[in-house]
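Hi support team,

I've been running sequence recovery on a batch of backbones for a student project. Most finish fine, but this one hangs at about 90% for roughly twenty minutes before it completes. I'm not sure whether the input is malformed or the queue is just slow. I've pasted the structure tokens below so you can try to reproduce it. Let me know if you need the job ID as well.

Thanks,
M.K.
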């Protein structure tokens, strides 16, 4: 038996004895002669002792009251002998009634106290569970739990220490100005692994934690351990899911790059092999056609390698524009002049309004326009119109490149800015890097870029550049 339980019972017995002595003293003062009133006063003393001290206090008050009634109020007085059978029956009846009343009252009060404690335990643990399910940060949830335990159990200090590979963390709640006694510690255990500890302290003058409170603290420690294990498993699942996505992205990237590199190489090899083939007579026109194919595929391969290098610069943070005041209408005219042969299959219309010079890197903005025009040409029908407009808009200059192609669904307009995502899967589709590079350059200039539907059908690529020098916009992780 625990020493705390022995001490508690000893205090209850002393309380019962003192209540019986006090009842006897009061009965002697009020009823100096033997009377029924003395029995009533002793019954009240038994009820009071049972209510305040529990079963042991009620029993000790009943027994001591029985002896004192016999000694002071039963003839012959001041002896423990009983002269008449009626007095024996009365004393025994008092003892039986007192024991029954004291026991029932103590049990009822104990049941009520246990019900209150159970309701308190359920409230604390249900609040903890509800906060866990709400998705709130675990450290904040544990801080709320520590505060709840502090209030519910009249503690002066509650400390939760969580171990972890990343150093873990500690939550401490305490009453200011308190003098905590020695802590009672509960390990946070899942299986055979200890994840931390829960340590609580009562006031130094209040003694150790009561046995009924220990049950709540043990349940709280188990709940904390389960929550820690759940968070660790969630982290592992999230990491595994992220790794699967990374592997899928790497596989898609490898497949896309491999296809894009092999296609022009295959065309170059076929053209060169035809030119070097012995015994086959090629006229001048056929030879020039094969050489043109080799040149076009070589340019295509060079553009792809250049795009891969540009994406590598974006990923490494090396894409820093060398800004200088530039007229965007001049950049547009330069790009149109250079891309004349590629634009031969479409009609190009320009709307160039007067705009101020903008601090940009002209080479990089040239590349943005080139990539957007290449997309517009690729998706335009033969003879279709490509509209290029430059106009002021609030504190920016807005450039728009619109085509009359099949268009891009609204739900895919953001996704096509990701590297290696194509707007179509046809043989003539690009590498899937043009829009990604264009967005990276525009963001590096502090602007923004998006796709929207064109009025006559098709897609319009729009980007805005600030008139005043601006900080770059953070690049989205790819």
């Amino acid at each position: 038996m625990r020493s705390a339980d022995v001490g508690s019972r000893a205090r209850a017995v002393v309380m019962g004895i003192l209540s019986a002595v006090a009842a006897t003293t009061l009965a002697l003062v009020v009823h100096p002669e033997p009377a029924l009133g003395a029995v009533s006063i002793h019954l009240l003393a038994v009820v009071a002792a049972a209510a305040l001290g529990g079963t042991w206090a009620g029993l000790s008050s009943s027994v001591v009251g029985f002896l004192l009634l016999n000694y002071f109020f039963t003839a012959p007085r001041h002896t423990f002998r009983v002269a008449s059978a009626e007095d024996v029956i009365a004393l025994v009846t008092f003892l039986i009634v007192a024991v029954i009343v004291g026991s029932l009252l103590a049990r009822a009060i104990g049941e009520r106290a246990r019900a209150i404690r159970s309701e308190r335990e359920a409230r604390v643990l249900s609040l903890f569970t509800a906060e866990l399910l709400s998705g709130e940060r675990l450290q904040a949830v544990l801080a709320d739990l520590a505060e709840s335990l502090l209030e519910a159990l009249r503690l002066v200090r509650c400390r939760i220490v969580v171990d972890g590979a990343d150093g873990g963390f500690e939550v401490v709640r305490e009453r200011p100005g308190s003098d905590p006694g020695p802590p009672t510690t509960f390990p946070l255990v899942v299986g055979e692994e200890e994840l931390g500890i829960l340590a609580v302290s009562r006031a130094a003058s209040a003694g150790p934690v009561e046995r009924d409170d220990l049950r709540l603290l043990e349940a709280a420690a188990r709940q904390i351990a389960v929550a820690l294990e759940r968070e660790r498993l969630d982290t592992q699942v999230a990491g595994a899911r992220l790794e699967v996505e990374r592997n899928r992205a790497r596989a898609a990237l490898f497949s896309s790059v491999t296809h894009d590199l092999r296609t022009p190489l295959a065309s170059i090899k076929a053209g060169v092999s035809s030119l070097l083939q012995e015994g086959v007579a090629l006229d001048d026109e056929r030879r020039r056609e094969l050489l043109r194919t080799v040149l076009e595929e070589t340019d295509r391969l060079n553009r792809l390698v250049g795009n891969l290098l540009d994406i590598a610069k974006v990923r490494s943070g090396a894409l820093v524009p060398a800004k200088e005041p530039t007229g965007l209408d001049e950049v547009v005219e330069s790009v149109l002049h250079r891309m004349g042969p590629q634009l031969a299959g479409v009609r190009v219309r320009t709307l160039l309004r007067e705009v101020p010079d903008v601090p940009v890197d002209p080479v990089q903005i040239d590349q943005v326009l080139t990539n957007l025009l290449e997309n517009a040409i690729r998706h335009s029908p033969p003879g279709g119109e490509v509209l290029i407009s430059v106009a002021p808009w609030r504190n920016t200059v807005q450039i728009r490149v619109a085509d009359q192609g099949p268009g891009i669904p609204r739900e895919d307009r953001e996704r096509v800015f990701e590297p290696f995502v194509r707007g179509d899967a046809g043989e003539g589709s690009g590498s899937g890097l043009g829009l990604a590079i264009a967005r990276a350059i525009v963001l590096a200039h502090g602007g923004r870029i998006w796709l929207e539907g064109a009025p006559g059908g098709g897609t319009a690529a729009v980007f805005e550049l600030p008139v005043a020098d601006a900080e770059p916009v953070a690049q989205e992780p790819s």
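--
Follow-up from support: It reproduced on our side and the slowdown came from queue contention, not your input. Residues 264-316 form one domain. No action needed from you.
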